[in-house]
Amino acid sequence: MHRGLSHLVCFLMLAVAACAAHALPRDSDNISQLVFSYKHRCALRNNGSVDCVSESPYLGESRGGDGEITYRPVQMVPRGATRLTAGEFAICAIVDDALDCWKDVPATGKKLAPPQQIIASHVTDIAVGDDHACAVANGAALCWGSDSAGKVGHHEDDYHNGTVQTKPWPVIASGVTRVAAGGDVSCAVAQAALWCWGYTGLASDANSKALWDGDHPPLRVFERGVTTVAAGSHHVCAIVSGTLWCWGDNTHGQVGIGISVDHAQHSPSFQTAGVAGTFMDGDQTCHRQWTQLTCTVEHPVKVIDHGVTAVFASANETCAQANGSLQCWGANWQGQLGIAPAKKDVLKATVAIAGEVNFVALDSTRVCAVMQGGVLSCTLPCKKDVNTCPDHPGFVADDPNDMSGVEMRGGVWRGTIGNAEVMVCLQAEQPFSQSSYYYLRHGFSIPLDFADNSGAILNEASSNGREFDYSKPTAVWTLQPAAGRRMDGIWKTADGSRTLPIHLVRVMSLDTGNGASCDSTVPNDPSRLAFNAPRVASQKLSITQMPGGLRRIGALDGHVSMTELPASVPNADNFNHAMRAWLAEEIAGYYDCALSNGGSADFNESYDISFLSPPWLVARESYSVYCGGAHPSGGTAGYSIWNLETGKTVDPWDFLKDSKWDYVKEVDHCDNANNCSRRPPPKLNEILTARFNEDNAGTGDCSDSLDSGISPGYLLHMDKNGLIFSTDFPHVIQACDEDIALPWKTVAPFLTPLGKTVMQSLTHKAPQHGH
Predict the structure, then answer these.
(1) Are 417 and 491 in contact (CB under 8 A)?
(2) Does residue 63 have a pLDDT over 50?
(3) Over 50: is that where the pLDDT of 430 sits?
(4) C-alpha distances in angstroms, 82 versus 27, 72, 180, 313?
């Protein structure tokens, strides 16, 4: 093996080993509770930890201004949690007898903000609503948040409706065991009686017709026998001696008495009510306002008469565990209840799962049941058009919105499809379509895309010109869950005519700071290096000896090349190490280019030493690439300046005074992350403009281009005689690209102490090598 090749392979092996050593083990503890907030999903595990991840529909889509996505579960509570609940107001957990709450979850790789402790001790229950929360602590019911409709219960004489209560406020002093918090109502079970306050929706409550804005105590709904209570946006359900009673908004049948808007619209009362008005329809009162119809049940009605042990409610959905089954009712237009037929409201308690469940999480998109052993069973929601909902939505194994399947399979793998050896890179963060694999025998990448968040199905893209159509795959992968470092599956052609087994072994795991990225542009990305290591190692390197002991090393028949220093030069190893890493990156880039260009690549990259006068070295990266699209591209990608005494690169802009650019005033010179190009100080810029008179063909004056608003980002480097400012215009005006050389005498007034040191070292020594 060539010495250069052995060094390259060694470098890649060390990089992969280092990354694998820092991979974090995945918490595989079973789930005991699952909750949804408006932008996150959180799980309480049997070991007492709580982790959260971004929730659909925000995952992979726009979330407004922040754009912060939590792709992998973030551990918010390491241990000690016994109860978990969530709403739009907050996510809260009882941890070691205290109450901890948080609103946001840090994005992947970002610093964790710890939860806020709301109540220090003796917390036994917690409920979170749309904009307020209630808890049980030391036997008292405490509420905080928005007091609209009086749901926080802060009823001092001078208190005004709608004020926000920032600290927990005692509503019921003692004997409380359970609480509920909905959209505009709160309830508590105290000494087996049920009390509710806020907009209760009960005819017996004088404040149910007009929002509470005075000193009114909680209303007692049931005197005895109450064990638990749950509240949706505008409805409440309570278990009383094993019987389930509900009341409130029944517009979607969420009260569960078999009457809803669908029924009311066909009632004789509705037909005679006119354009607007209120009428009675069975146990509910309905109000018609033009085409809108809302219905409310203003007294508790019996929904399930015996055997009820648990009840769960969300916006317009209700579920209860009763008589050995999970029964649900209410809004089902997205198929969220898993009850046939979808596209309609479910008007009475209907069996959703014929069996016991440990816990239920539900919102307006689906229901998830925590089964025995901590396994999830969830409905598959209709994400775009309710008219496409299946007639029999049902429940599916595991949460279809749970990213853990993709996370579990994400990473770099090596193995076989049939008898052919492959390398596979599965992207565990959006966009999933950056996943790919290649056969070791030819090295060209083939795109893959996760078909859904389960991570079990991948589509192998069909190529249509230079576009890859994942909706019409040439083959489909079906993967089993990863078992340790191994994962198996089936590869099948789209028409089913051929099937092959897949056997993979994990080369690199994922950690919270480094996801596998098949086309990362980050230098020395370990995942990319691991993915490309076999095809890099398979290259036949050409080595050419050059004057002064330099060596040119090429790969891919010279499409990629770089120059190495002889070992006699101080810190040559550091420079050569960087060049080998660059070579590995560009070999991968060649195959990526070929992938985008139908299998062939017009791809030429070189990294050459353009100036060497120890301790200073200047290396120039050049390229000529066409990977599809309207125009080829080419030119100088950049320069790297090395101080061989230290073995490190330096930024030549540090040679100049006042070369920082104010991105607030000159935003055109910054990218989206506010990484701004540095520019010469104003006086020096005037000198550069005066020197920039004609294009590189000598056919015209380009000085106006500098003042056109498309000011170039200069690529700064140096030689023995001075500093060289290479213009870097957009490709549409590349005719004006120039190397503007200014002698040291001209730039001397603008030099920093470092710049003066460089000038003195070069002007008092003759260069040993010049290329």
Answers:
(1) yes
(2) no
(3) yes
(4) 17, 23, 17, 20
How high is the pLDDT of residue 259? 82
Inter-CA distances, 65 with 69, 87, 169, 574, Å: 12, 21, 34, 42
Name the residue among 246, 154, 240 with its Cα closest to residue 198.
154
HSE, CB side, 13 Å, CA atoms: give it for residue 198: 31
- By the 8 A CB rule, do 351 and 325 touch? yes
CB within 8 A of 638, min separation 6: which ones? 620, 621, 715
Task: Report residue 672: phi and psi, to 5°.
Answer: -65, -20
pLDDT digit string, tens, across residues 627-669: 766 567 778 888 999 999 999 999 999 999 987 654 344 444 4
Answer with the residue of higher pLDDT: 406 or 768.
406
Do residues 357 and 338 make contact, with C-beta atoms less than 8 angstroms apart? no
For residue 160, pLDDT over 50 is answered with no
Helix %, strand %, coil % of the chain (to 5): 15, 40, 45
pLDDT in tens, 490-542: 999 989 999 999 999 999 865 434 444 665 555 567 777 788 889 888 888 99
Cross-strand partners of 540 = none
DSSP string of 731-766, one letter each residue: GGGGGG--EEEEEHHHHGGGB-HHHHHHHHHHHTS-
Of the CA atoms within 13 Å of residue 452, those in its CB half-sphere come to 12
Q: Give CA torsion, residues 249, 252, 257, 261, to 10 deg.
A: 100
Kindly report the average pLDDT of the chain as a whole number. Answer: 80
Q: How confident is the model at residue 743 (pLDDT cuts 50, 70, 90)?
A: very high
Angstrom distance (rounded) from CA 274 to CA 289: 9
Question: CA of 510: how far to CAs of 29, 43, 164, 356, 410, in Å?
Answer: 18, 20, 43, 36, 7
Residues in the chain: 771
| 16, two tokens | 């992969």
Q: How far is CA 668 from CA 484, 507, 512, 653, 747, in A?
A: 49, 42, 33, 19, 26
Q: How many CA atoms lie within 13 A of 190 on its CB side?
A: 22
Structure tokens at 771: 């290329």
Q: How far is Cα 197 from Cα 199, in angstroms, rounded to an integer?
A: 6
**pLDDT tens column, 186-207:** 999 999 999 999 988 888 876 6
Cα gap 437→550, rounded to integer Å: 36
Range in 85-94, 233-242, 281-290 with the lowest mean pLDDT:
281-290
Greatest C-alpha distance within the chain: 104
∠ CA 53-100-27, rounded to 5°: 40
Rounded-to-integer distance, Cα 327 and Cα 348, Å:
9
Report percent pLDDT > 70 for the chain: 75
pTM (2 d.p.): 0.59
Determine the Cα–Cα distance for residues 425 and 411; give it in Å rounded to an integer.
Answer: 6
For 203, 294, 334, the CA distances from 263, given in Å and listed in that order, are: 22, 12, 20
Q: Are 311 and 304 in contact (CB under 8 A)?
A: no
Query: In the structure encoding, which two tokens stand for residue 378, read together?
Result: 């969830």
Give the pLDDT of residue 463: 58
For 182-214, the DSSP string reads: -SSEEEEEETTEEEEEES---TT-TTSSS---S
Cβ atoms 86, 97 nearer than 8 A: no
